[in-house]
Amino acid sequence: MTLLLDAREVEQVLTMADAVPAMEEAFRDLASGAGVNRPRSHTSVPRPSPPGEQRFYLFKSMDGALPRLGRQGIRMSSDLIVERSARLGASTAVRRRIQPCTSEICERRNLVEAEMRKEDRAVDREARR
Fold this sequence. Notes:
By secondary structure, this protein is α+β, with helices and mostly antiparallel strands. It has one domain (7-128). It has three helices and four strands. Strands 1-2-3-4 form a four-stranded antiparallel β-sheet, covered by helices on one side. The chain is elongated, with a radius of gyration of 19 Å. The termini are far apart.
């Protein structure tokens, strides 16, 4: 059975007091070869950006398994990253998270993606000037 949880749901049911001993046990399994993991991977895709900004889409995933418990998990995150240069030369990053589509959040994701396309078109128009 597949169980999909977002970060808010995990925060509601998992306490640090429960997480630390579970992670210690998982790391013991990993160290002994009884657990399996794949290090986090990042996929970064540049997006059209106006002058003074750098935009890119970032997808991250990692997974692991504890065979003795019959459990495997994967964590995914999807972000649109916008880095803006301040007047004094400092750089700040503004993150807008795009959630994986589940029945509760498909509509919101579609709105965010539509807004991103609108912004991309505006950047393209500005670049053609």
